[in-house]
Design a protein that fits this description.
Phosphorylase Kinase, domain 1, 21% strand, alpha+beta, two-stranded antiparallel ribbon, binds adenosine-5'-diphosphate, binds magnesium ion
Length: 271
């Protein structure tokens, strides 16, 4: 989705907007069937995303992640849903009959495609993210990170042996993302997996994407508060392991890279 129409708008703000009376009048809220292992299995199979969907890895607020397979090859399958959630208040209120009122499939498909596309960009830039495989409707597949079909642990749950090394790697990836005009937006020890002794960044739906914005070299600076929040989260987490870092300094350093890119681009035009 190169011309992302809503690069700044978070899922939550869309959810709020869509749940307004006005959105209801446009018919965006629909009675949706329950997503079950069986229905996901059938959909994933029909859309050639997976030959098998084995089990649920995680059921979050907006999406469920499954362990799936393409033949013998394990995959993570993320399925977006926009209705009742274990944590949500909205869904509970709207439960109806066999199905639940949620957001139309095109909105779920939009979020799946958007996350997939951002993953692709991050992957191509060299960031440690699960290699995106394929997307269809409200789902996408990516490399399964884990050993023996056990998902890799979250950063928050591991015993970190070399905190400074891991911290530096994460910050390096934040910098790389920024160089391709992406800010994760929800970076924390909950959205970093530790796999093969390396940090892997996941869960990009809150990401801000400035790449297709006109004047991206300057408008990317508008993302500073969110970039700073991401960096602060990481600094705070690692401070308890004795890593001292100044989030403001790192944030400025990160943002100064874009100036360098701009100068390089400008000088290549002159040549
Ligand atoms: N590629 C992957 N490989 C292994 N486990 C994954 C993968 N992607 C996600 N998970 C697991 O699923 C959980 C939820 O995924 P995430 O993308 O963070 O969605 P949510 O929006 O529900 O937080 C993660 O905390 C992780 O345990
Ligand atoms: Mg998450």
């Amino acid at each position: 989705m190169p011309n992302d129409p809503a690069p700044y708008i978070s899922k939550r703000s869309i959810a709020l907007r869509e749940s307004s009376k006005e959105a209801g009048a446009r018919g965006r809220l629909q009675d949706l069937p329950e997503i079950t292992l069986e229905s996901v299995r059938a959909d994933a199979h029909a859309s050639h995303l997976a030959t098998e969907v084995q089990s649920i890895i995680s059921a979050g607020k907006e999406a469920t992640v499954f362990l799936a397979f393409w033949r013998d090859f394990p995959l993570a399958l993320k399925v977006y849903r926009y209705y009742s959630t274990p944590h949500g208040k909205r869904g509970k209120r709207k439960k109806m009959g066999g199905g639940k009122v949620g957001f139309s499939k095109d909105i779920m498909a939009y979020w799946a495609a958007r996350e997939f596309w951002i993953l692709e960009r991050a992957f191509r830039a060299g960031v440690n993210v699960p290699t995106p495989a394929r997307h269809s409707d409200n789902m996408f597949t990516a490399r399964f990170l884990g050993e023996d079909l056990q998902p890799a642990p979250l950063l928050k749950d591991v015993d970190i042996k070399h905190p400074k090394r891991i911290f530096d790697k994460i910050i390096e990836q934040v910098f790389t993302l920024y160089r391709v005009f992406l800010i994760h937006g929800d970076l924390s020890a909950f959205n970093i997996l530790m796999f093969q002794d390396e940090p892997w960044i996941i869960d990009f739906p809150q990401a801000i994407d400035f790449a297709s914005r006109p004047g991206r070299h300057s408008v990317v600076a508008e993302g500073r508060p969110i970039l700073l929040r991401d960096i602060k989260n990481i600094c705070r987490f690692f401070s308890r392991f004795g890593v001292n870092a100044d989030a403001e300094v790192l944030c400025n350093e990160c943002m100064s890279q874009v100036g360098e890119t701009e100068r390089l681009e400008a000088s290549s035009l002159v040549r």
